[in-house]
Amino acid sequence: MLATHGIPPLPLRVGKVPFGNCRTCTGNACGGRPNMKAAGPCRCPDVCHAWAAATTDPHTLTSPAWARAWRTAAAVAYHPGGAGLTVVDLDDAAAVQWARDNLPPTRTVPTTRGEHWIYRGAMPSSNAVKPSVDIKSLTTYARWLGPGTGATANLPDAVRALAVKEPSPAPRAPQSLTVPLRGHGGQCPHRTPTYLERGIAMAEQRITEARGAVHATVYRTFLAVLSTHGRCGCLTGAHVARLFTAAQAKGETPRHCTDAWTNALTTLGL
Question: Are 14 and 33 in contact (CB under 8 A)?
Answer without folding.
Answer: no
